[in-house]
Amino acid sequence: MKEAFLAFLAVFHGIVLVYYVVLNGYYLITSLFAFWALRRHARREASMDIDDLIATAGAPAVTLIVPTYNEAATIEEACRSLLSLQYPEYEILIVNDGSTDNTLEVLRQTYHLIPTPRYPLARIPTARVRATYQSRTHPNLWVIDKENGKRADAINAGINFCRTPLLCIVDADGILERDALIRIVRPFLEDDRTIATGGIIRIVNGCVVRDGVVQEVRLPRNMLAKFQVLEYLRAFLAGRVGWDALKIMLLISGAFGMFRRSLVVAVGGLARDSIGEDLELTVRLHRYCRERGLPYAIHFVPDPVAWTEVPETIATLGRQRDRWHRGLIDTMRRHLRLLLNPRYGRIGMVAFPYFFFFEMIGPLIEFMGYIVFTVVLLLGLAHLPFVLLFLTVTILLGAVISFAAVGLEELSFRRYPRIRDLLELFLLAFLENFGYRQLHTYFRFRGFISYFRGQTGWGHMERKGFQTA
């Protein structure tokens, strides 16, 4: 019996080590490609005037679609940010998805809304639209008031009322930088095959916001939010920049993504029964174009910024990550035919397998690995060379990836000007391995349980609002 148990441990240890080595090796590769891509991006920025590019190519009109549910705490500042964008021609559609707080009243009083007819150009099914309003002070600001149908349904309502060739989906708790639209639209101007682009999401907790603009960038005071700053830097700068360079962009964030309207309508809008509708839409766009032989490109642009508020309590963070993982599982299940299917090129052979084996199944391996590792230590069965190798792979390599993300931030954008903040980020890159990473793994593992128990809700997400002084 003991021999069988030891044999099981040996096999399981091997699986865990291979998982960690491959996962960290993947991140190292994408980090190297990200470094190369960011250097190239910086050289292009130095030799290119975006205003001249827009003047030459012509800026296509854009509609910002902002799904809103109980966002009274942040909606006023978010709207100010959107109304101050530097872009020749754009509309804002705030879609109030049956809010139960005073979100609509805040919008009505602040922006002097009046009932105004507006007719849909598409017929994607949605919950009933109750009324449409236009601002008397800002004619490009519209509010669509509808019955609750959840986020994807609200976005689909916005797509129906969109009149422009491009649409941009933005979260109501976010703040766009003033040149964000100009920068995120650039791939559409440079490459007519472009069907979607994504920008970077940065964390606004702790920053000073005035009149819808982030005036001073600071690290949050809350420790959970600090770890998420590092996590977002790693995900976007070490991850998606590398994905873009490798042409395997499988995810456009629903917090800040631009799409060609005609193609989104052609695929039927966002899946209303999906939990991870942003990932699902991106995968569906890949499938639609590849199955029809359509030339297309999906890009990530690292400098257009959307600032967003992140959870500062363990309970709220847990609900968010549980929902994210349920959305990932749902999308992988819906589009399983892409897995290792050469018909879909790099998406089917590289991007989808990574999400399937490492992002989706990975938390199961990690969570079981922590349990088995703890049991082995308690029983005194630990093999010292394996323990040292395990700690090296999980802690040192993980820290190296995070160090690389912070380094990419400092070399490319330097959004955190205070030396103290930069040093703290490097310290967090080491500390996150002792508690935060394990907590994150548990939340994702819990997402598995929630998904197979049929849970479909989003859960309550607390909003504290932006720091304005």
UniProtKB/TrEMBL annotation:
Keywords associated with the record: Glycosyltransferase, Membrane, Transferase, Transmembrane, Transmembrane helix
Domain Glycosyltransferase 2-like: from-to ranges: 64-210
Top-level taxon of origin: Bacteria
A GO MF label: glycosyltransferase activity
Keyword Hydrolase in annotation: no
Transmembrane stretches, start-end: 6-38, 347-380, 386-408
Annotated family: Belongs to the glycosyltransferase 2 family.
Xref: PANTHER family: POLY-BETA-1,6-N-ACETYL-D-GLUCOSAMINE SYNTHASE (PTHR43630)
Protein name as annotated: Glycosyltransferase, catalytic subunit of cellulose synthase and poly-beta-1,6-N-acetylglucosamine synthase
Organism expressing this protein natively: Rhodothermus profundi
